[in-house]
Structures are given as structure tokens and as C-alpha cells.
Amino acid sequence: MRKRKGFTLIELLVVMAIIALLLGLLLPALAKARATARQVKSATQLNQIHKGFMIMSTNDNDIFPTPGRINRCGTTPGKGPEDESVNSHANLYGACISGEFFTPQLLVDPSEASGNVAIASTYDIERYSPPGDVYWDDNDFSRFKADLDGTCNTSYATMLLNGNRKARQWNKSLDSKYAVLGNRGIEDSSYDEQDYLSSKTLLIHGSRKEWIGNICFNDNHVELVRTFAPAALAAINSNGTSVEDTLFAEDVDLDGEGSDVYLVMSDTGSATGNCSDFLWEASLSWD
Predict the structure, then answer these.
(1) What angle, rounded to 10 degrees, do the helices at 89-98 and 9-57 form?
(2) Most buried by CB count within 10 Å: which residue of 63, 211, 233, 237?
(3) What pLDDT digit, counting tens, does each position of 196-246 carry?
(4) Strand-pair partners of 284
(5) How is 90-138 classified by DSSP, letter by letter?
(6) How far, CA to CA in Å, does 208 sit from each of 19, 29, 185, 196, 202?
(7) What is the pTM of this model?
């Protein structure tokens, strides 16, 4: 009797069905593991960016890098009043990249969900020239951008570089209750159903229904949070009243300058008057 070689069609179909079943069980777990790995990488990037700020602060009395202090009024490096009109996040990150404290790649989240956000691959680091009073790439076609309505080269929101919050927290305060940068969120920390569910920020680390983000506090620790008002934030004292602080809203406005956490994205500043006497404004964007 001739011996049978190979498998029958039934046996092959059974094996294929088992493999398909195993893949069906494993793929969701693999997708979850990949998402977790991207979230951890994002937290590491935020930690490294903040460390870059801390290292740069050693050159300026523990004050974090500030465009208006790097490129002051006048043309003499390190001398003259702060030019607050250039205190945008675009210039902040441009100065850090030009100073080689971190790279453009570090500023884009591995889980970025917006098509407007891309690595600043054309940024010209060679534009940096203290003798020429140039401290970041200022060419419009290649400069660093932080505008979610157009081209944007960072995934991360940062505290505003003006007012009370800048004076109190844009430095090596080591304050574990104050957030300085993190995954961006929804304007005004809004839970309005239409604004909330239509925001692209939900898809960075969350789902179609829930915002989740990494937030870096001023003591350099990073937390993964699911709310715009995490317990880690200190309450705000407003005329003797305790007010809940949130990540993406100006909850207390004192003299138009603010004192609470307010993470945003600012591409450009503008000024009226001369360098030491002007009305500060910023162009903010959300998605």
C-alpha cells in the first residue's frame, strides 16, 4: 500500500483556521503594546526637552531659554532689555535647536495625529551667528513653526512666555505642582461635546472618545493624565478663594497676565512701540 505524503486539504484548512484565530487574539495585544511604547517614547521626549531647558538655564541665572533674553533689544549679545515681542514658542524651539540642545525630531510626538505637524527638516542651523545678532533661523521658508492652522513643527504645548506665570515658573523652580509643557489639548480645557470629540488631540494617545496626554511638570517628572484638571496641579489662590486649575484654560486672569497653568502653542509675537515699551501679543493656535 502506498504511503500518503503531505497534508490533506482538511488538515491545511484546520491549521490555517488556528493560525487566523491566534492572529485575531494577538493583533489587538500587539497594537496596544505598540501604542504604549509610543506613549512611553513621548514621555521620554518631553523629559529630554525639559532637561534641555534646565541645562540652558545654567547660562542665565536658572531662567529657562527665553527668545527675548537671548536676542535682546540692540545688537550687543547679552546686553540690553529683554525683547518680549519675540517670545514665541517658534523662536524658543528655534533657539534651542540652533544651540544644539536638542533636535527637531525630538519635538514631534511618535503618535502625532495631525497632518499639519511635521519635523522641521529644512531648519537651517547654520543661520546661528551671535556676531550677526542671529540666534535662530529667521528665514520664513525654513524657520521653525508652531502654528496648528498651517505648518507646525512641534506636537507639544508650552506655557506662555509672558506675564506672572513666566516670572514665577519659567525657571528651574523644581515645582512638582506646575506643568510647563506636554501633549496639547482642547482650547479652554473644554468638554463641550462638539469641540471635544472633533479635536485631533484625542487621537494622539487616547481614542476617538477620550483625551489622554503626557504632561511634564517643573521638577522634570512626566505624568500620563486623562483629565484637563489632574490632581497633580496645585489649586490657584484668587483673592482668598481656591480655584481649580486646568491645563489648557486661563482659569484666573490677573491684570491680563495670568498666574495659572496655561499650555498653548504660539508661533509669532507682535509689538507696538519701541523694544522696551510695547503691548505684547501672541498668535495662538489649537486643533
Answers:
(1) 90
(2) 211
(3) 999 999 999 988 899 999 999 999 999 999 999 999 998 887 777 788 899
(4) 266
(5) HHHHHHHHHTTSS-GGGGS-TT---TTB---TT--GGG-BGGGTB-S--
(6) 30, 19, 14, 10, 6
(7) 0.87
